[in-house]
């Protein structure tokens, strides 16, 4: 695939998610037809129901693929393999896959996409900034205490808007095909650093408190978080967030010829939202 014209259709799997919703909006702004697919979209799509994939893939030329809740799940490689095979049968030309840094299962899925016979891109990402206002971390931030089962490991948190910009470039511009972009923010930050940054930018006291895995899991259960999501988060905190990702990557600048957005910029842009949340 070189570049798409506006008469073609791009499938976005996970169209209501943090990255998917932004990709949909950016593609729509380019007057490109988008097929939004998820469990709550007009085009129904569920990774656990392969029978739902056929309609989503029919008549599209490219796809942006996110796996719910995460490629770390044991079921992910088989599903990605089956999805790629069906995509080829349906005449899809290109897949851009959202992946995660330091996740062994995710890298298996990356290899499946690379070997699928399709044109491909991998966007291998650090942890998202937007988890603090659009994800499960929001509850912790609302309380004023970032209570997570992690020590003082640093992570190069990445802005979801940067991810979406790279994804759209991979789907619509020449020169990107068959490349892996590793996306991080411009600095390494511990959760203690984040608490200090939130406190400074918002004028509210936010602290970091390490907790046990058992305490963390129990708090998620009390929030009604599904078991598979709890297992995924526990895996990410206890195994992936072990220092293996304490390095910066330049995928944003490689793909977009501009620097990655900083975490401080993210907080400043969303300051009103954070202050409306409150910290009681």
From TrEMBL:
Tell me the first and last residues of the signal peptide: none
Which Pfam family, any one, appears in the UniProt record? NmrA
Q: What InterPro entries does the record tag this protein with? A: Ergot_Alk_Oxidoreductase, NAD(P)-bd_dom_sf, NmrA-like
Domain NmrA-like, first and last residues per copy: 110-238
Report the domain of life of the source organism: Bacteria
Among PANTHER family, the record links this protein to:
PRESTALK A DIFFERENTIATION PROTEIN A (PTHR43162:SF1), PTHR43162
The name of this protein is: NmrA family NAD(P)-binding protein
Organism of this sequence: Neptunicella marina
